[in-house]
Design brief:
By secondary structure, this protein is α+β, with helices and mostly antiparallel strands. The chain is built from seven helices and eleven strands. It folds into two domains: 57 residues; 241 residues, Cysteine proteinases (Cathepsin B, Chain A, Alpha-Beta Complex).
């Protein structure tokens, strides 16, 4: 049992599931006083849930990760952060893609950066907006830049930094131009806006609006993703322990709390899925990615169609 902040445990080889002490050492978790006992109890409850899920032999598996000592409510409060707004000016119309291939994966085409980690900050909205801009700008110009999520956290005053925000207003903020991540590093906490002193890699005016995929259907989303990665929102509560496979989690409400990016789609032995890029680091899911079934109730798997998918409109003046 982990009881003190300075306890050091060597990680020994273990079977399918680690003990709490082994897990804590592996993820560099330390606790003060009685907090260790609280976390161990939650950990053990989560392990039992994971075992019960995996015993069903479904299309996807759960596993331990950096979130296994958290309740679902704690997890959502700290590691999500999508808060949509209703009064946002969107560009009307669905994606203008005429040819939709059977499958596509933008991560293999030099269009998607490496997986990032938002940390203990409700900035998923900023990560989704930033990653979507990176990919759209690459497709327009041939240049894949790593842009500054921290710029949105600090400077987008329509949103609330680590206390949450809207991926759409984040995309609209990029009309002001986007700094490089190297010149404006991510801190996982809010700070003063430094957009005037950073290195701009996407100039002001390159983004001219936000395009909604107004038809909320799997086929409409596929059409949009055939043209570029697309920002979406999901209900992340049941995804905390995702390890691998194609998730089937029907949603019949518009509930969502986490912004991510759809980077492709395909089929796994007839099980059609969307490939989605997350912002919880590479120790979660399939090296930071998750596959969500294309069909899943009225509002899609994990409520992925509960709000309109979107992407930035790039000015023709900056295209290759």
């Amino acid at each position: 049992m982990v009881r003190a902040a300075l306890l050091i445990v060597s990680v020994a080889a273990y079977d399918e599931f680690p003990t709490f002490a082994q897990w804590a050492a592996n993820y560099d978790k330390v606790y003060d006083g009685d907090e260790a006992e609280v976390r161990e109890a939650i950990f053990n409850t989560n392990i039992e849930e994971i075992k019960a899920h995996n015993a069903k032999g479904l299309s996807w598996s759960m596993g331990v990760n950096q979130f296994t000592d958290l309740t679902e409510d704690e997890f959502i409060a700290t590691f999500t952060g999508e808060k949509p707004v209703d009064d946002f000016p969107h560009v009307a119309g669905d994606a203008d893609v005429t040819e939709v291939p059977d499958e596509i994966d933008w991560t293999t085409r030099g269009t998607v950066n490496e997986i990032t980690d938002q940390g203990s900050c409700g900035s998923c909205w900023a990560f989704s907006a930033t990653a979507t801009l990176e990919s759209s700008y690459q497709l327009a110009t041939g240049n894949l830049y790593k842009l500054a999520e921290q710029q949105l956290v600090d400077c987008d005053k329509r949103n609330s930094g680590c206390n949450g925000g809207s991926r759409d207003t984040g995309l609209m903020y990029w009309e002001n131009g986007a700094c490089s991540r190297a010149s404006y590093p991510y801190k996982a906490t809010g700070g003063s806006c430094r957009a005037s002193s950073c290195t701009k890699q996407v100039p002001a005016g390159a983004v001219t609006g936000v395009v909604d995929v107004q038809t909320r259907s799997p086929s409409a989303l596929k059409t949009a993703v055939a043209g570029r990665p697309v920002s979406i929102s999901v209900n992340a509560g049941k995804l905390k322990a995702y390890a691998n496979g194609v998730v089937h989690n029907d949603c019949n409400s518009m509930s969502h709390n986490h912004a991510i990016v759809t980077v492709g789609y395909g089929s796994d032995n007839g099980d059609d899925y969307f490939k989605v890029r997350n912002s919880w680091g590479t120790s979660w899911g399939e090296a930071g990615y998750i596959r969500l079934a294309q069909q899943g109730g009225t509002y899609g798997t994990a409520c992925m169609l509960g709000s309109a998918p979107s992407y930035p409109k790039i000015s023709a003046e900056v295209t290759v």
